[in-house]
Structures are given as C-alpha cells and as structure tokens.
Amino acid sequence: MKVSLYTISLSGGYYRGDAVPLLDIFPKAKAWGYDGIEIEGKRPHGSPLDLDAAARSAIRTAADDHGLELSCVAAYNDFSSPVEEHRENEMLMVRELIRLAAEIGAPIVRVFAAWSGVTRRDGCITYDVARYNLDHRYPGTTALERWQYVRECLVEVSRMAQDHGVTLALQNHTPITSHWDHLLQFIHEVNSPALKACLDAPLMQQHTEAYYREAIAATGDLLVHSHFGGRFERDGDGRIHQATSLAHPAVCDYPAFLKAAKEIAGYDGHLGYELCSPVLTGHRHAGLGYALEQAELACAFMRQCLP
C-alpha cells in the first residue's frame, strides 16, 4: 500500500493561514515520505477553472521530478438535487475533473453521492451552515427520488470516465452513502466497470475488526481508494499515535482495517491523508504550522500501521 497527501489538508480553510501553493506541496510531501499526491478538485489547488494546459503540464512535471504518483483527483459533487439544472452543472464539473485526471495521469476521480459543500466565516471553513439541514436539504423530495437522481448521474459520469480511461471511486460519506452497503448498492445498480469504491475507515459506523472485515469482504476488488485522518502526536519514544479527547474519544483501528484490506481485498492502492475539519485549540483556529506538522506526522503514523 502507498500513502498520499491530499492537498485539501494544506488548502487554507481548516486552519488560519494561507494555502500552500499546489506545486510547493510536492517537495514537502516527498520530504515527509509520501508516495503520492491527491488533488482536491476545487480551488485553490485543482479547479478546472484555473488549470490551463501549461498548469496541467507543470503538475505532471512536479510529480515526475519528485518521484510522486498522482493518486487521485477528488470531486466535490452533489447529484441529489431535484433541480435538473443543478444536476447537469454537477455532472459538468465531474466531467471536467475526469478530463483533468486523464491529462495529468491520475487514474482515479473520487466522487460523492451528495456532498453538502462548505462556507467560510472570517476566512475559515465551517460545515455548520451547509449541513444544518443535511437530511432535509430539498423539502418535498423523497429519499427514493434522491437515490434515483444520484444513480442517474452516476450512470452518465461513469460513461464519461470510461471514455477517458479513468476510474470513479464513490466514497462512503453522508448523506445517502453514509453506510458502506449504500455505496455498494449504487455500484451494483449502475453496473459500470468505471465505477468502484472509496472506503474510508474514519467514516465507518463501527470501529471493530469484525465490522471492518465485513465491509471489506463485501467490497472486495471494488476497493480502489481510501482516506485516513485524525490528529496525531509523537510519543517520547518517537512513535506516533492518534490524539484523543473527551469530546473525541474513539479512534480508528487502522492496523485492523489495513490488515483486512490486504488479506481480503488484496488492496495495494493509496491511502490519502486528509485534514478536513476545522482545527481548533481553545476555540481558536490553529495556524499553518500546525497543519504542516500534522501532514508530516500523519505519514509517519500510517507507515507504522501498514501491514
């Protein structure tokens, strides 16, 4: 298995500070021991609005120069709207990200069923506004209708991906695909060789070895991508561990998850580190230095966990 740095971690939203420019992330990732880079498919790093042919060539060159793989381009799409123009716009963005991935040599585009989006307050990202009505975003629309909208869009974008030689990885993520079985139902209903699974341990409903093994056994060789996260600290003996608190006592059993992924699914793909929630200390946002430290510790931690 390989470890990649997801650029959302240094995008300037979850901490107080500037985004690290995309090309500046490559030497940092290499120095920290990462094998690859996963690019967020939106501003500031990976929006197709901003990346012309020269910029795309520069991304490929940076990856080659630093010996890093481009593991994935990550879309932030919502296919669940009852408004048809909304769904068309979302598919258009995913199509552009598929083209981006093909042009820079990334084999995978991560997709959601229904990403809620983010807003910013004082320059920092919050989920509070976008997710206040997460399960009731479109009043008057039934759960079945939302499922069907998502499926219809996945059918279309899967055709696009297949045409470009790119694989879509549908992630287990709220809403609609909060459970790994929902994820697999979509994949089987769409029935496209271009639609696979992105199964993330932190988003599982249970964190036991038995539960992980059940999910991975059901997913099998559909598993093509995964993410990990958390907060990390270094012990006195130099080992890295997951930081916990009274508010967040539970942690993923990453060794158990990875062992199951290797033994059951034969998984040898990327594990993308993402810092994707506001980093608060004393109810104040931490700075860029903290995000940089976490990115370095995360890679070292995952190296400890790999089977």
Characterization of the model:
The chain has 307 residues and is an alpha/beta fold. The chain has one domain (2-305): TIM Barrel, CATH 3.20.20. Helix content is 38%, strand content 18%. The protein has 8 helices and 14 strands. The protein has an 8-stranded parallel barrel, surrounded by 6 helices. The protein has a two-stranded antiparallel sheet with strand order 5-6. Helix 3 (84-104) packs parallel to helix 4 and helix 6 runs parallel beside helix 7.
Question: In brief, what are we looking at here?
Answer:
The protein is an alpha/beta fold. 38% of the residues lie in helices and 18% in strands. Helix 6 (209-219) links the parallel strand 8 and strand 9.
Poorly predicted runs of 5 or more residues: none
Q: State the end-to-end CA separation.
A: 9 Å
Residue fraction in strands? 15-25%
CATH topology: TIM Barrel
The radius of gyration over CA amounts to 18 Å
Note the main sheet: 8 strands, parallel, barrel
Overall pLDDT score: 97
Task: Output the CATH homologous superfamily.
Answer: Divalent-metal-dependent TIM barrel enzymes
Shape, principal axes of CA atoms? globular
CATH architecture designation: Alpha-Beta Barrel
Q: Which structural class matches the secondary elements?
A: alpha/beta
- Kindly report the spatial arrangement of strands forming the biggest sheet: 1-2-3-4-7-8-9-12
Estimated helix fraction:
25-40%
Highest CATH level, the class: Alpha Beta
Domain tally? 1
SSE string, helices as H and strands as E: EHEHEHEEEHEHEHEEEHEEEH
Tally the helices: 8
Tell me how many strands there are. Answer: 14
